């Protein structure tokens, strides 16, 4: 009996490992991985060829150089972007910053709550901002980053007081509300 159980167990393990290998080979790019996890391909800029992804969803993307891409707001990508990928969201994100009101904010999380809503949310710590999901359907060209502007904007964002952050949060919500009405 023991040899038959061992053979069945071995075949089962071999089958599972082949299944996971096929899944990995089908998802040959980070863009395919994003799409298979309910996220738009355009969250990362064009030309990403080097990435790692482990079984728990931790990923790291390597870019040739830091760069900026223009959407409704401008996004900055460091040379290394990493986070934890699960269906419809990336959390523990590092390496992406979003510009708003001339300040740069590190993006902590990106999520799509309800795909049919057409909305994607970027959490920058002080506020969660929504964008049109269609803006991120295709990867954008990424231009070489202007580091002086980025560092200046980041240091300004890091030194804001709690009162200033609350006021900024209010302005961002008002801006989003006025866009929703129009």
Automatic annotation (TrEMBL):
Listed InterPro entries: At5g01610-like, DUF538
Keyword Signal annotated: yes
Pfam families in UniProt: DUF538
Annotated Gene3D superfamilies: At5g01610-like
Keywords: Signal
Signal peptide stretch: 1-17
PANTHER family for this protein: T31J12.3 PROTEIN-RELATED, TRANSMEMBRANE PROTEIN
Protein name: Uncharacterized protein
